[in-house]
Structures are given as structure tokens and as C-alpha cells.
Write a structure and sequence with these properties.
This protein is α/β, with parallel strands linked by helices and about 325 residues long. Helices cover about 40% and strands about 15% of the residues. The chain has twelve helices and twelve strands. It has an eight-stranded parallel beta barrel with strand order 1-2-3-6-7-10-11-12, surrounded by six helices. The chain has a two-stranded antiparallel sheet with strand order 4-5. Helix 6 packs parallel to helix 7 and helix 8 crosses helix 9. The two termini are about 35 Å apart. The model has no long low-confidence stretch (mean pLDDT about 95).
Length: about 325
């Protein structure tokens, strides 16, 4: 399994990955993104920014990089970076299928992405990913599985995914929405020829949304690598938007709100890789300090009180505008 490569890494940041959702396309829902990216959202500007982030992350010990078909040109940007230096053969590359990017490189599209977990979409997007990432691809994930997703019951799709697994690609899934735990548990039951299909799960978990934790612990115990996304709650846990409690704990640690928020996730015993969604190299450097944050029991208890009811959290997330 590709994540076994990280077991031999010695850098404190080896279990922090870099997700490219915020820089692979001009529009996204992260708070403060206008200030992060400025007015120049051209393809070449974001390609350069993505490569700068990848360079900085790699230099600081990050070895997992996460893209998706729906993240604009993220796979293309990542492929360019990988192909420019074949010596970077110690990285793990993941991408996702199931959403099609439809914003045509604008920030004001009526729909930025369209979801479809059908077999036809898988086969089309698998070809598209292969054209860009080729043999670099280690992990292919179903994007945003929910309990009602046909991807959980489509036996023909499962067979095709098992064929990819037999060819050396790890198969995983990501989750979203207030019923993440139900989706995770349903996915753990999916088998092909008596063998579990999925090797990884990528879910939202942060100080505000903790509901998936028990199911993620079950997935970890079942042998899946757990990848955590949205540890910053799409910017809600970054200064200046962070809750006062988080700001106070950050001040006590002499580090940023972002480092504390990600440290809270890293300390979960089931968390294999925690994603940074940084849009600037300064943000990335601050995020990576999470690896050295030490939180005491009082601080942990105060942060635990920030958790929101899952439906309220996801309603708030759904109301965030595309910037």
C-alpha cells in the first residue's frame, strides 16, 4: 500500500499532506481566499502558485499530495511538477473521481461541479486522470460518498474498481455531509470476491465537526488509512475567523490558530494523513507547525467544546460563497 512509504519517513511533517482544492481552480469556498489569491486567477498564475506550494511542501517533508478531477486543473498542475523532476519518487499521489468541473475557469458559474458516481463517469474520468498522472497515481478515491450514493451498491462499478486495484492502484473514498459516519460504515461492508474493496477513507474532521470520529476509528481498526480533509473548516478555524477559544489557545502556544486546529486532528490515533489546504507558502509554513504543537488536557477540553451539531455545521458550509 502506498501509504506504507510514509512509515519510514523521519520528518515531523510526513503525516501532513497538501490538498490542491484551493489552488487548482479560480473559485472555491474557503474564507479569505480573495486576499490569498488576489485578482490574477489565470491558469498560468495558479499553475505557478501550485508549483511553489508543492516545492515548499516537499522541501519541508510533506510526501502526500491530493488532487481531484473537479479541482479545475489540479491534476495537470501536479503532473507538470512531478514530470519536471523524476527524482521525486518518494511521494504518494492521490486523486478523486465522481465530480466533473463545470465552471469553465470562472468564479461566478451557476454550478462549479456536477456529481455523478455512475460507471460511465468513472471510466471517463479514469481515462482523463491516467492521461495526466499516468504511473504517478497511487490512490484513486470516489469523491464525496454519502449513504445514498450508488457507488456503495453498484456491483459492476465495484468490479471495475477491483480491476484497478489488481493493477496496483489503491482504491479509496471520501465522504461529506452530516451522515459521514453512516457512509463510512456502509463502505466498510463493500467487498469484491470476499475481499474489502476500499483501502483508504478521506473525511471531514475538525474542531467544529467531530461526528465522524468513531467511524473513522473503526475504519482505522479495519486496516484503512484515514486521510482527514477540511481540518481548517474551510477557513472558519483560521485567524481572523477563528472562535475566541481557539485564538486563546493559539496565543498560549505562541503559534497560529491554523497550527493548533490541525494539531488537534493530528493527535487523533486513527489519523494517518491530515491535509493542509494552504493557498500560500506562508500559510503552508504555519500549517506545518501543527506537527510540533503540544496541547495539554485543559486546552483540549476547551477546544472540544467548540464542536457543532453536524447538520448545523454542514448547513453553514453549504452557505459559504464561492470566492
Amino acid at each position: 500500500m502506498p501509504f506504507a512509504r510514509l512509515a519510514t519517513a523521519t520528518t515531523p511533517t510526513c503525516h501532513i499532506g497538501l490538498g490542491l482544492a484551493a489552488v487548482g481552480r479560480p473559485g472555491y469556498i474557503n474564507l479569505g481566499r480573495g486576499e490569498d489569491l488576489g485578482d490574477d486567477r489565470s491558469v498560468e498564475s495558479l499553475r505557478t502558485r501550485t508549483h511553489e506550494l508543492l516545492d515548499a511542501a516537499y522541501a519541508q517533508g510533506v510526501r502526500y499530495f491530493d488532487a481531484a478531477r473537479s479541482y479545475g486543473r489540479s491534476e495537470e498542475f501536479l503532473a507538470d511538477w512531478l514530470n519536471a523532476d523524476p527524482g521525486r519518487n518518494d511521494v504518494v499521489i492521490g486523486s478523486k473521481w465522481g465530480y466533473t468541473y463545470t465552471a469553465a475557469w470562472t468564479t461566478d458559474a451557476e454550478k462549479h461541479e456536477v456529481k455523478d458516481h455512475g460507471l460511465d463517469t468513472y471510466e471517463r474520468q479514469r481515462r482523463e486522470t491516467a492521461e495526466l498522472l499516468g504511473d504517478h497515481l497511487d490512490l484513486y478515491q470516489i469523491h464525496s460518498v454519502t449513504p445514498d450514493s450508488p457507488a456503495l451498491t453498484d456491483k459492476e462499478l465495484h468490479g471495475k474498481l477491483a480491476e484497478a486495484a489488481a493493477d496496483g492502484i489503491s482504491i479509496g473514498f471520501s465522504t461529506s455531509g452530516p451522515a459521514q459516519a453512516d457512509a463510512i460504515r456502509a463502505a466498510l461492508e463493500v467487498t469484491v470476491d470476499g475481499e474489502p474493496l476500499f483501502r483508504t477513507v478521506q473525511s471531514t474532521y475538525n474542531a467544529l465537526e467531530t461526528s465522524a470520529a468513531p467511524a473513522l476509528a473503526e475504519a482505522h481498526d479495519a486496516g484503512l488509512t484515514v486521510i482527514v480533509k477540511e481540518g481548517m473548516a474551510n477557513g472558519r478555524l483560521a485567524a481572523p475567523h477563528a472562535p475566541d477559544t481557539l485564538k486563546a489557545v493559539a496565543e498560549e502556544t505562541s503559534l497560529g490558530c491554523d497550527a493548533v486546529a490541525l494539531a488537534l486532528v493530528l493527535r487523533q490515533p486513527w489519523a494517518g494523513v491530515v491535509l493542509s489546504g494552504a493557498a500560500t507558502t506562508t500559510q503552508l509554513a504555519s500549517n506545518l507547525h501543527a506537527a510540533v504543537v503540544d496541547l495539554d488536557e485543559d486546552q483540549l477540553a476547551r477546544l472540544a467544546a467548540l464542536a457543532e451539531e453536524p447538520r448545523a455545521y454542514w448547513e453553514k458550509r453549504g452557505s459559504l460563497p464561492w470566492h
